[in-house]
Structure formats: C-alpha cells, structure tokens
C-alpha cells in the first residue's frame, strides 16, 4: 500500500468514528481537495523547483495513528533552545501536542486542543479563522494537513497583556523505529494590544524517514505586535513543508525571521494578509545550505487595505550541491492605496554545483503605491577576499569572515540576544571559525 | 630588504610593467611617482600578490625569500603591507573584528599566542591616538560609509596595528585634504624606523612635503626612468611629467 492509499484509508476510518463537531466538515472538505489536487508536482506553478512526490513512495505512521514515542523530557533537553528557562514551551511529538512535555509560564497564554476550543468561548475565533490559509496555499499538501486538523491546538494570547515569556514551539519527530509523517497544526490568536514572541524549531531523532507537514495560522488583532522566529536546523535526512499564515485583522505589527540551515527538502510558505489599514510587516530570511539540502522559501504579502508597509529581505548562502528557491509575491489589491512594499533577495553561491532559483513578483492593482523588488545572485567578492588576505588572514578564514558578514544584516534582526547568539554560533560552526 | 629585478607583469594580456629594477634597504623611504597609467598601482598590486596580475619575467626577493611564490597572506605574515588606493567596503564585518583577526593571524604565523581582549584593546587604544581615529569608526562595518579620508586613515591605522617591515602606500594621499594628509603623514613618520621601510606611491609631490623620502623614482610606461632624491620630486612638481616623457621618448628614438 502506498502512502496515498494509506492516508485515504486512515481518513475514512477516522471519519467513521468521528463524533461530528465543527471540525468534521472542514476536514471532509480538505480531504476532498486533497483527493482532487493530490501531491503537488513540478507542473504546479508554486512547486516548479521543489519535488516532494518521492516522499510519498514510502509508508509512514502519521498523526491520527498517534504513533507512540518514548521521547522524554531528558531528550527534550538536548534540543531545547537557549533562553528556554524563561520561555513557555509547547512541545509536539510526531505531530501531536504533548501537554506533559510542555510548560506554560504565562497566565495570559491559553493552550487548548482545537476540538475543545471550537466548543467553548473561543468557538467564533476558531470558526472564523481556522483554514483561512487555504485561500493562499492551494495545493494538496496543505489540504492534507487540514484534513487531519482536529489533532491541532489553539493558542490564545490574552488582551492587553505583555507576554514576558517567549513562546517556544518544538516540533519533535521521533523516527527511531518507523517512518513518521508529522502534521502539526496550530491556530494562534493574538488579542488586541498583546505582544508576543513566537519561536518555532524542529528536531528529529532517529534515522527513519522524517516528514513534517506543518501549518500554523496566526491571527493578529488591533494594536498587537508579534515577533516570529522560525529556526530550521534539523537532521540531513529530514523533510518538511512548513506554512505560516498571518492575518493582520487590525492595525498591527509583525516582525518575522526565518532561519533555514539544514534539512533534505525544506519548503516554507510565509503568508501575510494585511486586512486592516496601517499594518506593518517586516520579513527577514537567511538560508545557508550545504551538502544536498534543498530549501525553498515562498512568501506572500497581500496588501488588502490602504496605508500598509511591508519590508522583506531574504539572503541565501548556497554551498556544495545544495539548491535554494526563493519566490516572493507582493499583491496590492485595488483598495490598497498608499501601500509601501519592498522586497529584496540576495544570494551567494559558494560552489559551482550550488544553485538558486529566485523569482520576485509584484502584482499591483492600485495606482498610488510605492513598491520595489529585486534579486541578486553572485559569488564571494574577490576584492574583499584579497583585501582580507593582504592583511595576513588565510583564505579559508577570509571566506568565512565574508560569508558571516553577508549573513549579519539578517542575524541582527533576531531581537532576543540568546537566540541571535545561538544562530550566530550555528553559522560560525558551519564556517568552522569562531568569529572574534 | 626588497630587491626587484627586471620585473615584467601584465593583466589580461596587456603588458604593464616592462622591466622594473628597485632596491629598498631597511630604514629607507622610497617614493615612486609617475603619470597616470605608468604602472604605479600595478607594481603595488604585484608586490601584494593580487592574482589577476601575471608576472611574465624577472624576480622579487624580499628578506631573502622569493616573494612571488608566497600567497598574499604569507606576504603579510612576512611583514609586507599594502595600504590600498581603494580600500574595500565589507558590510557586516566590524573594523575591530577585522583588525583583531588580522593581528592574531599574523601572530599565529610567527608561532605567537593570540592577543587576548585586554591586550588587543590596549594596543588598539595606543594606535588610535596615533591616527586620530575614533572608537565609533572601528565598531562600524569595515570602510562601509567611511569618507575618503576615514578610509585612508583606517589603512594607516591598520599599518600601525600590524607593524609591517615594508609598507607600500598606494596613493594614500589621493583625494585627501591637507589636514588629512598631515594626519596620514604623521602616522607614517611615527611608524618609520631604522628597521622598516616605506614605499610611497603617489601622483603628487604634496605628501612628500611631510614624509621626506630618501629616494624618488619616476615610473613611466612600465619602467623606472629616473631616480634621484627629494629634489627630483620638486622638479616634477614644477615642470610636470611631460618633460620626463619627452626626454624618455627622445632617448628611445636616439
């Protein structure tokens, strides 16, 4: 039995025992979409350079099977991000939220299963927002996540409170005994005036196949402010499709940084829907790939209302036989006058085998806007290299200094110092050089 | 210290240096002057080891070693320093980290322990005062957004930090106002001693009012066509390069 047949069978079993509830229809619709669209192939415009079909040639245990894991708190210690002592920690193992491994430190943070949230005071929020990302990511792999949505969680950041403790979200895949397809799903609701730092990271233990198909939808209310960091440095053999979908439903502020350092196939979708006036969003990304990694960043900024500002800078360093994809779309809808939207993608290729496909796209339907986009692909600056070497710095260290220097203007947008230092350290280790 | 014999060099097939001979001894300051396109900067680049220049003939012996066989970083390790005519801007690398790496790499080359943070800071403070350089400049990205004068001062500051044996200054005076020239000259004068040497490459005589050379050479069409003392520089300033060009062209025709 291949994975698709397996998924179909499991879905039907699950639905027959599903007592109903509000999520059932959403799942059924998503499953129909999945059946119709299938796994995206290179013919799909958004999947031209990223092939995930082969990932479905093997069998996986996946989320509804609640694959058992002996993953323990002690093992979690090994993958914890620095600063965790002060953080709220939400831990998913094989796609399922683990309350026993998680730690909630902030009174203003509510974490519930989506099933429960859809039946209590948060019902309206869940019904209004869950699944909204499907409008922006129209493909079978996204639908597949939604088809099993009821295992997901709802995170609510209460009104008018400053969350002092960042929210760290760990997606653990325990592939020690069997192939695992993890499908975590979160809906995060950030109330008016709330401020929050969200940090996502991924870790696989074990050598079996690890495939994470994750969706997070984040609703940002009026005067709320979000810092969002995604740090991807999972094992060489791991694969993931990771979708982060922001809706700015009131005038609000987003600061998003995506750091991708490892993985076999990594596809990120970052969508920002600016649904209110005077929203502001800053998107930064750094991908530093070696070996045979393939990392694909697709971003969408949808300017729906007037007077919004978005600024996007993604930088890539691609070594060995690694391949990168950047696809950035900016939409300016007819009502979105006075939009300011900027986008830039810069890449350095460190080897002859490395490659990048970059495609900035602007689609503007309003006339009074300021937009720019651009991309560059180049090599390390020979002049800079000679300058450093002429000061006695050997070629290898000189290259490392230049690569690190290229990454710095993304790193400095990681506001929490512990995380910035952590990512800097990962990059320095990759460069085999400790930056003074 | 440095012996250049019959040096020929070209870039992309074009012959630039056509037989340079030059001898520099410890304690000496040599100035190389010459019109645009005469090969001054090519000579500096070849000595520092820029790879796009090809040496087609001749030899360069530096402290008993074949200089042309050494990588740029080894040349620096051996005490050769080039102040760039156009210092490179490197966003994301602070000047301090750059210089600290350079100082410690050169120490490593000599088998010495790296300077710790305190030792480095002490050395830096001392040299900063010398070059009239502000701490804020050093914590900025290397040369990024520096004014022309700041870039050149930064070059001389690096020279002071690295304490080379042979410093080559490639048009360090160009684009500087008179105050900046004084600061740069002051740095060079404090640097020079009986054990090191300086090769000043300049288009104008101005810098030589402040850094008095022992020898002045005129480079024209890839060769040193005149050598003398500082009076030669004054003569050039007065009469321009044309009289030299004419003399040389006549000699060649004769």
Defining key terms:
heterodimer, A: alpha/beta, eleven-stranded mixed sheet, ten-stranded mixed sheet, 9 helices, 22% helix, 40% strand, B: 254 residues, alpha/beta, Rossmann fold, six-stranded mixed sheet, four-stranded antiparallel sheet, 12 strands
What is this structure, in a nutshell?
Chain A has 436 residues and is of the alpha/beta class. Helices cover 22% and strands 40% of the residues of chain A. Chain A folds into two domains: 3-276, no CATH class; 382-436, no CATH class.
Plain-language structure description:
The complex is a heterodimer of chains A (436) and B (254). With 436 residues, chain A is of the alpha/beta class. Chain A is 22% helix and 40% strand. Chain A has helices spanning 3-17, 23-37, 73-79, 114-117, 123-129, 140-147, 382-389, 395-411, 417-430, and strands at 61-62, 88-93, 96-103, 109-113, 153-157, 167-174, 180-182, 185-190, 195-205, 210-220, 225-233, 238-248, 253-262, 265-274, 280-289, 294-303, 309-318, 323-332, 340-349, 355-364, 370-378. The termini of chain A are far apart. The mean pLDDT of chain A is 93. Chain B has 9 helices and 12 strands. Chain A binds chain B through residues 381, 383-384, 386-395, 397-398, 401-402, 404-409, 435-436, and chain B through 48-51, 71-73, 75-77, 81-82, 84, 87-88, 90-93, 97-102, 104-106, 109, 141, 158, 162.
Distance between the termini of chain B: 36 Å
Task: Label the overall shape of chain A.
Answer: globular
Mean pLDDT of chain A: 93
Outline of chain B: globular
User: How large is the share of residues in beta strands of chain B?
Assistant: 25-35%
- How many structural domains does the protein architecture of chain B include? 1
Fraction of helical residues of chain B: 25-40%
Largest sheet of chain B: 6 strands, mixed
């Amino acid at each position: 039995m291949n994975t698709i047949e397996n998924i179909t069978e499991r879905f039907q079993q699950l639905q027959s025992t599903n007592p109903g509830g509000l999520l059932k229809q959403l799942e059924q619709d998503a499953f129909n979409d999945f059946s119709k669209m299938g796994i995206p192939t290179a013919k799909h415009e958004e999947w031209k350079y990223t092939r995930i079909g082969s990932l479905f040639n093997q069998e996986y245990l996946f989320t509804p099977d609640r694959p058992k894991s002996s993953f323990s708190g002690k093992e979690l210690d090994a993958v914890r991000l620095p600063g965790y002592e002060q953080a709220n920690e939400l831990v998913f193992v094989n796609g399922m939220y683990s309350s026993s491994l998680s730690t909630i430190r902030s009174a203003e943070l509510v974490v519930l299963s989506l099933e429960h949230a859809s039946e209590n005071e948060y019902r309206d929020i869940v019904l209004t927002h869950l699944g909204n990302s499907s409008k922006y990511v129209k493909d079978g792999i996204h639908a597949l996540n939604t088809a099993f949505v009821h295992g997901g969680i709802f995170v609510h950041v209460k009104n008018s409170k400053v969350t002092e403790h960042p929210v760290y979200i760990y997606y653990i895949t325990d592939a020690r005994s069997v192939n695992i397809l993890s499908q975590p799903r979160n809906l995060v609701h950030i109330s008016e005036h709330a401020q929050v730092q969200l940090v996502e990271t991924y870790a696989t233990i074990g050598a079996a196949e690890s495939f994470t198909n994750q969706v997070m939808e984040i609703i940002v209310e009026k005067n709320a402010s979000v810092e969002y960091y995604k740090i991807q440095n999972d094992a060489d053999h791991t694969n993931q499709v990771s979708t982060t979908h922001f809706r700015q439903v009131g005038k609000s502020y987003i600061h998003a940084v995506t750091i991708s350092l490892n993985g076999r196939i990594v596809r990120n979708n970052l969508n920002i829907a600016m649904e209110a006036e005077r929203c502001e969003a800053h998107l930064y990304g750094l991908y530093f790939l070696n070996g045979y990694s393939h990392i694909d960043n697709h971003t969408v900024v949808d300017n729906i209302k007037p007077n919004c500002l978005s600024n996007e800078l993604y930088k890539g360093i691609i070594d060995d036989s690694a391949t990168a994809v950047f696809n950035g779309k900016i939409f300016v809808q007819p009502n979105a006058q006075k939009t300011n939207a900027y986008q830039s993608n810069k890449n350095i290729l460190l080897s002859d085998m490395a490659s990048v496909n970059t495609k900035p796209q602007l689609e503007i339907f309003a006339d009074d806007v300021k937009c720019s986009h651009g991309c560059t692909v180049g090599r390390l600056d020979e002049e800079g290299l000679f300058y450093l070497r002429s000061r006695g710095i050997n070629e290898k260290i000189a290259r490392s200094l230049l690569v690190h220097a290229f990454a710095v203007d993304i790193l400095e947008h990681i506001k929490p110092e512990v995380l910035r230092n952590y990512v800097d350290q990962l990059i320095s280790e990759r460069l085999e050089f400790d930056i003074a | 210290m440095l012996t250049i014999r019959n040096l020929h060099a070209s870039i992309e097939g074009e012959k630039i240096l056509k037989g340079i001979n030059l001898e520099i001894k410890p304690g000496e300051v040599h100035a190389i002057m010459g019109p645009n396109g005469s090969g001054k900067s090519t000579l500096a680049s070849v000595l520092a080891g820029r790879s796009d220049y090809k040496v087609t003939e001749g030899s360069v012996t530096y402290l008993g070693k074949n200089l042309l066989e050494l990588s740029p970083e080894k040349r620096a390790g051996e005490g050769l320093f080039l102040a760039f005519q156009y210092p490179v801007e490197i966003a994301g690398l602070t000047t301090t980290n750059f210089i600290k790496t350079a100082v410690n790499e050169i120490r490593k080359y000599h088998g010495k322990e790296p300077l710790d943070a305190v030792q480095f800071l002490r050395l830096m403070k001392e040299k900063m005062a010398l070059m009239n350089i502000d701490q804020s400049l050093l914590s900025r990205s290397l040369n990024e957004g520096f004014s022309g004068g700041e870039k050149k001062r930064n070059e001389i500051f690096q020279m002071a930090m690295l304490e080379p044996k042979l410093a080559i200054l490639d048009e360090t005076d160009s684009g500087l106002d008179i105050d900046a020239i004084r600061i740069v000259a002051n740095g060079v004068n404090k640097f020079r001693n009986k054990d090191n040497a300086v090769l000043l490459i300049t288009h104008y005589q101005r810098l030589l009012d402040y850094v008095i050379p022992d020898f002045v050479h005129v480079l024209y069409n890839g060769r040193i066509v005149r050598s003398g003392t500082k009076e030669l520089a004054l003569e050039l300033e007065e009469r321009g390069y044309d009289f030299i060009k004419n003399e040389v062209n006549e000699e060649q025709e004769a």
